[in-house]
Each structure stands twice: as structure tokens, then as C-alpha cells.
Design brief:
- The protein has a single domain, classed as Endonuclease III, domain 1 (Orthogonal Bundle), CATH 1.10.340.
- Helices cover 61% and strands 0% of the residues.
- It is globular, with a radius of gyration of 16 Å.
- It contains 11 helices and no strands.
- With 194 residues, it is mostly helical.
Length: 194
């Protein structure tokens, strides 16, 4: 990974610091980014880290007692609006990281120095990641995390476009968060009308 910028996604300095410094936190935040506000999803890793017993790593989370992890997700403020299913998804993702990537999230984008298409395929293969989530995460890695294999913008699709405000990959401050929200509202309105 080349130089990483400080991320400013959540509006919470500690949560953003964790996302900036811990690839697992960033990956879990992306996994949680559905059916909740983006900043809520990306605050989730900090809440999990602060509430669990043991280290915040893939091995610990994969082996965590499932019922206890659901309770971690349910504590107020909740990690996600669907604590049971999302706790299970986090455990499944972490188990895949342990089994396939030596428990290290950043191995996905560093092992073997993958090209952009290989990286996208690796992301799409993760539990809880489909084509769209993989494209958004690839754009986030490229735009804000210093992971820029040749062709990453094309592999990220329109999420990789320079100057776009389509996803979490484009959030660097409150103003850009507002622009991303407006783009999403306009897309939903267009889909509803069309």
C-alpha cells in the first residue's frame, strides 16, 4: 500500500482513524454499508472494536461466540439496524479472511501485487460483496487508501470516475458527504420515474 490519506467518512475522529489505519475496519465498514447511513456503517468497526473481548482482528471475530457478537451489535447505539444478520455476515467475512488471506484484509490487495481486474475479482469473491460493493470498495481503495493498480479506475466502473460524488469513495468532508447523498437521491428519483 502506498501512502494512505486520513479518511474522513464518519464525522467521528476515532472511527475515521481506525478506518484509516486498519484495513479490516475499512473492509467491515464496507460490508456494513447497506440499509443504514454510510457514516453509521463505517462507525460500526469502532463500535465492534470497543465492545468485544479480545483483539480486533479477523481471527478473533471469526471465532467469537455468535450470540455474544449479536449482543455486541445490539448495544446502544446499535452497530447496524439488522444486528443478527450483520453480525453473522461479519463473522463469515472474517472466517474467509482467516481461511483465504491469512487473516489479513490488506493481503487481498497486496499479495502477488494484483492488477486491477484481479483485485476486483478477489473483492467480488468475499462473502457479502457483490459486483457493486466490490467496485465501490475498489474506488475507495484507489481514491483514498493509496491502492492504485494500473487500470483501477476502469475496474471500479463509474465509481472510479475522477470528480464523481457517487459513493463512500468520494467522501472526504461534510460537503462531499452532502454531494454524495444528493447524487444518490437523484439516482433513486430517476429510477422511480423511469
Amino acid at each position: 500500500m502506498s501512502e494512505t490519506r486520513a479518511l474522513h467518512i464518519t464525522g467521528d475522529a476515532e472511527a475515521d482513524e481506525l478506518l484509516s489505519s486498519d484495513p479490516l475496519a475499512l473492509l467491515i465498514g464496507m460490508l456494513l454499508d447497506q440499509q443504514v447511513a454510510m457514516e453509521t456503517a463505517f462507525e460500526g468497526p469502532k463500535k465492534i472494536r470497543d465492545r468485544i473481548t479480545g483483539d480486533f482482528d479477523a481471527k478473533t471475530l471469526a471465532a467469537y461466540d455468535p450470540d455474544a457478537l449479536v449482543e455486541v451489535f445490539r448495544q446502544t447505539p446499535a452497530v447496524h439496524r439488522y444486528p443478527g444478520s450483520m453480525a453473522g455476515r461479519v463473522q463469515t467475512l472474517c472466517a474467509a479472511l482467516v481461511d483465504d488471506w491469512a487473516g489479513k484484509a490488506d493481503t487481498i490487495w497486496t499479495e502477488g501485487d494484483p492488477d486491477a481486474l484481479t483485485l476486483r475479482k478477489r473483492l467480488e469473491a468475499l462473502p457479502g460483496f457483490g459486483k457493486q460493493k466490490a467496485a465501490i470498495f475498489l474506488a475507495l481503495l484507489g481514491k483514498q487508501y493509496g491502492v492504485t493498480p494500473e487500470g483501477w479506475r476502469a475496474a471500479a466502473g463509474h465509481y472510479g470516475d475522477e470528480g464523481s460524488y457517487r459513493s463512500v469513495a468520494d467522501i472526504v468532508d461534510p460537503a462531499s458527504l452532502d454531494r454524495v447523498r444528493e447524487t444518490k437521491r437523484a439516482a433513486k428519483a430517476a429510477a422511480k420515474a423511469g
